[in-house]
Write a structure and sequence with these properties.
401 residues; alpha/beta; Purple Acid Phosphatase, chain A, domain 2; 26% strand; elongated
Length: 401
Amino acid sequence: MVGLSFIHCADLHLGRPFTGVGGIDDIAVGQLSEAPFQAWERIVDLALSKQVDMVLAAGDIYDIEGMSLAARVRFRAGCSRLSDAGIACYVVRGNHDPLYEDALSMPEEVHVFPAGTVTSIVHERDGEPIAVIHGISHDRKGIREDLSAGFHGGEGPYDIGLLHCHLGGQVSGGEYAPCTMDGLLAAGMDYWALGHVHSTMVRADGGVTVAYPGTPQGRGMVESGPRGCLLVTVNNGITAVEAMDLAPWKWGRVRVDLSGCLGPEAVMDAIQTAIDDLSTGTVFRIEIVGRTNLEQGAVKQIFEGIGPGLPKGVIVGGLDDRTHPAVDMDHLAERDDAIGDLARCVLQAQQGDAAANAIRSLADVPGSSAVLKHLDIDDPWAKDALSRALWRAMDLMGGDV
């Protein structure tokens, strides 16, 4: 077949009110609310620069709760740029933007698939068919039927299934329009352009590629990491998929250990050093750990003081203060009481396999977590969790430490 290239995107959620982080200022809220629109513009820019044959949008372009005219106008503007360049855009609607009567018409090269039954469109280049796109839109929120059952391909030069669905056993998420991998593989498609799941997934099985591009702009810490769309090229029957990182803002966590920081200036320097390493376009949540001689609440106040001096293009997404009082653990371990017993446990937990094995043995206690069996006591997270648990035990016992 003639070479083919296209962009696969989904779950833009244009116009959804931003509620992902509490405590950020109005300017940051505005920047994050604008980010999905910027992501869509970057997808269009990529399509134009790569001169692809088509763009596939697999549902949830908008949110039905926030399907403003402004959001539709912004999407249409991107489609117009594609249409002016001769690039077709094929769209299905999902559970968040089911098909509806829209007075705002789309450019000629935009094809929105109807609901009710799967329809097929032959895509041509210079009068020659190079692909057949099969698709169906949601007509309401909360569809529970397997819409993939209506797809039948195998006769086109390259068959593409465009669908907003939940692939059971492969991904997490709300089970709208549930389908199975076996069902998709049996439908005669060469490529399944799916939407609904906000993380990227690409599977190839028996010459069939099944893919979710994920949302192009994460909306919280659970949607961290690279985000964008999929750039797909087909040559000599071989499908190649490349994840393109286009998200204007990325979410991340920063961990700062204040152990050994004596006084506010040292704490300020430690936090500032961590923040200075952040790249532009980062929304971060900072976790402060370690032992400090500062008064309770001082770390939060220092952090709030640093906030106005953050690098441009960096947004604070929250603070978790997990610091503990600075104490002499060896001195506590000399005590002949329960506090001393706990202090000795802390010291032993930092001294190798014996303590780790003792902790893992707790996994046999009814009601405990199986994760204890695989605990790596040398892992910083494990040490911190154990230390916090022991300090919490001391607090509950009311000991003077």
